[in-house]
Amino acid sequence: MSLTQMLKGIIDGCLLAIIQNGEVYGYELAEKLEGFGFDSFSEGTIYPLLLRMQKEELVTSTLKKSTAGPKRKYYSLTPKGEIELEKFIVRWNTLQTNVNRVLPSKSDIEGDDMNE
């Protein structure tokens, strides 16, 4: 399974979390994701997700003037989006805890190497 496949369901929550911090436009979202280490997501990947989130009423968009060319569409969270983000955080924390219980710790792996 590729990293992109693993991230497919997680990226929505990450986008909601970034948008929660303030209005943001698509290219800026891609840059912020890259800054967090998600380098496999381009604007072309993000815009369909934003469109779906808008249809689901998780985000709204507003066109605003840009200093660098045409107007930009800025996204912000709706109250429904805030609730969905809270649900995502709970699901993520549960998933992370459960996966960490299953996976061996770094010290377990290093300890195995010492015994060889």
Task: Describe the structure in your own words.
- A 3-stranded antiparallel sheet has the order 1-3-2.
- By secondary structure, the protein is α+β, with helices and mostly antiparallel strands.
- The mean pLDDT is 88.
- It is built from 6 helices and 3 strands.
- The chain has a single domain (3-114), classed as Arc Repressor Mutant, subunit A, CATH 1.10.10.10.
Secondary structure elements and their pairing?
Blueprint (H helix, E strand, L loop, with lengths): L2 H5 L2 H11 L3 E2 H10 L7 H13 L3 E8 L2 E9 L1 H24 L3 H9 L2
Antiparallel strand pairs: 1-3, 2-3
Helix pairs in contact: 2-5, 3-4
Summarize the structure.
The protein is of the alpha+beta class and 116 residues long. It is built from six helices and three strands, in the order ααβααββαα. The protein has a single domain, classed as Arc Repressor Mutant, subunit A, CATH 1.10.10.
Q: What is the N-to-C order of secondary-structure elements (H for helix, E for strand)?
A: HHEHHEEHH
**Strand arrangement, largest sheet?**
1-3-2
Globular, elongated, flat, extended or rod-shaped: what is the shape?
elongated
Largest sheet, in brief, is: 3 strands, antiparallel
Give me the CATH architecture, please. Answer: Orthogonal Bundle
Count of individual beta strands? 3
CATH-level-4 superfamily name: Winged helix-like DNA-binding domain superfamily/Winged helix DNA-binding domain
Q: What is the number of domains? A: 1
What fraction strand? 15-25%
Q: Based on helices, strands and strand pairing, what is the structural class? A: alpha+beta
Number of helices in the DSSP assignment = 6
CATH level-1 class: Mainly Alpha
Give the low-pLDDT segments: none
How much helix, percentage-wise, in residues?
55-70%
Q: Alpha-carbon distance between the termini? A: 29 Å
Radius of gyration, CA atoms, in whole angstroms? 18 Å
- Overall average pLDDT: 88
The third-level CATH topology is: Arc Repressor Mutant, subunit A
